[in-house]
Amino acid sequence: MDLHRRHVLTDARLHAFCALAFLVGTAAPAAAQVSVEVSPLRVELKTNPGGATTQAITISNTGKDAVRVRATLSDWHLARDGAPQFVEAAAPTYSATAWTRIAPPEQIIEAGREATVRFSLTVPADTQPAGYRTGILFEFGPATGDVVGRGRDVVVRSRIATLIYANVGEPPAAVELTDLKSRSAANQPAQIVAVLKNTGHRTVRTRGTLVLYDKSGAKVSESVVPDVPLLPESEREVAITAFDPQKTSLPAGEYRVEIKIDAGMPALLVGETTLKIS
């Protein structure tokens, strides 16, 4: 495998890495606690123009009360830090929302029981090869009545999303490593942040390694690049823990950082920077 090597400058800045699963909730009265699990939270489909598929999502009510579940479709994209941003279905370039149907849109799940929501996705025959996406938002509330508060009560308003990736055809991957920088915060492990730019029409996922070398050139630590998505025609930051202080104790000094990222291309993305430990 070929290597594409790039030297980039270091910049320290505080940042929090957000996982792809989306969960928003508020407090609930003691008499109406909601505990629900959704599986899977991510569905990756590989299909061709004109293809169709039906998949099932399991919802488990592990709480003590029955819950009402409403399922709706939503477009979404990723913020620069990787956090999902849900928007109204307005048919953007890479939306698969218009191709998707869900059933049932609403149901009640008794305590300790499971239920299934199925979605069917049909790709139009004239669709161009690319990485498309949609999402199913599951909203949970009391089994009876509207989801509203009375007096000082706060009633549950929580949502969990299953993100759906519909990869149509085999468009080539085209990803660049545009920046590589270090950042640190008090009482937090040092991080190396890789800025990746996807100029292609395909969703790719990252994998790879980050290695620290001391002044003598000896390898002192190795970390794994997280498996995260990079959407078509987008740019995002990928935060990698430089080393685990619980496993590796490094003396103060300057270390050389080398990162290798596999983004689904014939050549690895390779970058170097430095990390100062005080």
Descriptive report:
With 278 residues, the chain is an all-beta fold. The chain folds into two domains: 2-16 and 172-277, Immunoglobulins (Immunoglobulin-like); 33-168, Immunoglobulin-like (Sandwich), CATH 2.60.40.10. Helices cover 0% and strands 54% of the residues. The chain is built from no helices and 21 strands. The strands form five sheets. Strands 2, 4, 6, 7, 9, 11 and 12 form a seven-stranded mixed β-sheet that branches. Strands 1-21-20-16-17 form a five-stranded mixed β-sheet, with no helix packed on it. Strands 3-5-10-8 form a four-stranded antiparallel β-sheet, with no helix packed on it. A hairpin with a 4-residue loop joins strand 20 (253-262) and strand 21 (267-277). The radius of gyration is 22 Å and the shape is flat. The two termini are 36 Å apart. The model is unreliable at 1-31 and 147-156 (pLDDT under 50).
